[in-house]
Amino acid sequence: MHTKYISGLVLTLFCLMGTTCRQAPEALDPFYDKTWLHAVEEDSAEVEVYRPNTYAFPPSRGRTGFSLSADGTFRLFTIAPTDGLEEHPGRWKKVKDDVLRIRFAAEQPEGFDLQIISLAPDLLKIKKVPTKAP
Fold first, then answer.
1. Which of 52, 68, 96, 122 gets the highest tally of CB atoms within 10 A of its CB?
2. Keyword set for this entry (predicted)?
3. CB 38 within 8 A of CB 31
4. 85-94 as b/e, with b when 16 or more CB fall inside 10 Å?
5. In angstroms, what CA-CA distances link 107 with 75, 89, 90, 98, 133?
6. Is residue 56 over pLDDT 80?
7. Cis omega (within 30 of 0) on the bond before 130?
8. Nearest to residue 111, comparing CAs of 127, 86, 134?
9. N- to C-terminal Cα distance for the chain?
10. What top-level class would CATH report for the domain 30-130?
11. Residue 133's pLDDT is what?
12. How many CB atoms lie within 10 A of CB 39?
């Protein structure tokens, strides 16, 4: 009887270890691996609004934007002299739950902190705060 009890306990422990040691599938964050374009029409005094580049924007002369990946890659898109988009590669890191620090390899553009006000799959509201490069 004692052996049955120990065997059952060991079997239960192995089952528990098997389920807890498995890597949980990561939920896809709607922020990553999208190109977010500035929806200037929707901005307020302090908050900038961005939407995925697949959004049906009203006509505009040009839109700035950015994209970032989970690996720390950041790409800023500004309007180029020829009205196209100019890409500025950089890096980001999380400094608070809702704040990302953006840095660029070159001196221009200047780095900034990006505070996430709200995030949904098709809508992003942020505040940009200039910072001194550490």
1. 68
2. Signal
3. no
4. beebebebee
5. 15, 12, 11, 25, 10
6. yes
7. no
8. 134
9. 66
10. mainly beta
11. 55
12. 20
The pLDDT value recorded for residue 114 is 95
Domain layout of the chain by residue ranges:
30-130
Answer whether residue 7 shows pLDDT above 50: no
> What is the distance between the alpha carbons of residues 103 and 85, in angstroms, rounded to a whole number?
19
Question: What's the pLDDT band for 127 if we cut at 50, 70, 90?
Answer: very high
Residue 12 structure tokens: 């239960």
Q: CA angle, 61 as apex, 55 and 66 as ends, to 5°? A: 50
pTM of the model: 0.74
Higher pLDDT, 26 or 25: 26
Question: Quick one: 37 exposed, middle or buried, by C-beta within 10 A (0-12, 13-18, 19+)?
Answer: buried
Q: What span, in angstroms and rounded, lies between the C-alpha atoms of 67 and 90?
A: 10
pLDDT(27) > 70: no
